[in-house]
């Protein structure tokens, strides 16, 4: 049965944005406790030095409800970011694919993901600024409702975007590596494991491929983005006033290793869930699952 939404139309990109918003918001909401621990491990690594001991310390000192601090920022902030990231990625992939006909697919994936992420992080930054403070400073605010006005009163408009540059430094490499790894993983699965074209596989098989590609993409992207993630947490929680000071305080080795195990535990499943939810929405609307690049063929007749 033919989809009611034609590909590469405004309606299609709107559906992709809505799918990205729902999938990212739901996936990030599900792992809020791990994100709370991750932020505290970055801000206070001596006190929160392990995953199990960290959860135990948080629950013992602040109660189990502390594990869900900042949930609204995860749901709304990352939902909005996901809408921009996935919707604009689909848009830019088509635009760049049609314009840069002599470039390899890898170049198109890098350009498309980085272009989409620039806008996605501008949308995310205010929510991230409040979320991190709520998670690491129990007395700051309860959530977005009281956190936004409190942050604005203390630091003004700049407070919402103080970490935008580190966010770009974290998320641009992550997004570029994540999308490109996903695309290549999906292609590898169809070509070398299933040995069939995507169109010849069932919807269930396509969604399994999506989950596999998403998990690999998330794990690889996490390693690349870990230093910037530590810097973002240090800046928003006033452990440093500048990026260079944060780097000096944390140390080069710790930039790459601090909170990396828990980030891999978080990001791999989260990215896999996002892609699964995202492609499930496509499947429900009778659209092809993600992966691959279809370039526009100009009719010269």
Descriptive report:
The protein is an all-alpha fold and 301 residues long. Helices cover 75% and strands 0% of the residues. The protein has 12 helices and no strands. The two termini are 31 Å apart. The C terminus is likely disordered. It is a multi-pass membrane protein. It is found in: Mitochondrion inner membrane.
Q: Report Rg.
A: 20 Å
Tally of individual helices: 12
**What would you call the quaternary organization?**
single chain
Strands, total number? 0
| Portion in strands | under 5%
Largest sheet: none
How far is it from the N-terminal to the C-terminal residue, by CA?
31 Å
Give helix and strand order, one letter per element, not per position. HHHHHHHHHHHH
- Outline, from the CA principal axes? globular
What structural category arises from helix and sheet content? Answer: mainly alpha
Q: Spans of 5+ residues with little confidence (pLDDT < 50)?
A: 297-301
Mean pLDDT: 91
Helix content: over 70%
